[in-house]
Amino acid sequence: MSKVKNIMLPVDGSQQSIDAFKRGIEYASEVNSSVYLVQVLKEGHENLPKPERESFLKSLSEYAENHGVTVNKLLVYGEARSHIATILVDEWSIDLIIMGATGKGRVGKMVIGSTTDYVIRHARCDVLIVR
Known about the structure:
Strands 3-2-1-4-5 form a 5-stranded parallel sheet, sandwiched between helices. By secondary structure, it is of the alpha/beta class. It has helices spanning 15-31, 50-66, 80-92, 114-122, and strands spanning 6-10, 34-41, 71-77, 96-100, 126-130. Helix 3 runs parallel beside helix 4.
């Protein structure tokens, strides 16, 4: 694999996404990459209080900084799979996405989640799946 400059770490609050985030921070530290942390919420969640919406990403950012990695964080509203696989990959020139195999959705008990499956099939960069 060529030099990985920009890594996206999408999170949804599930334990697998947090585990993938931690692995991503470890890897980014080793290869000195820029990290883009993103949480995509479904439309309609904009009414949640701002501190509640931002506290999850803030705690993950603090974890990263404690491990010597600065992250660029973004909270987005819309469809997670298209934002992760294409929109943000292009916007941030992402070289690698590191994400969990399953997420918080109803399909969490499946072998691989629907969002992860979509990202694997449509991402415009490499994808590393963490179990």
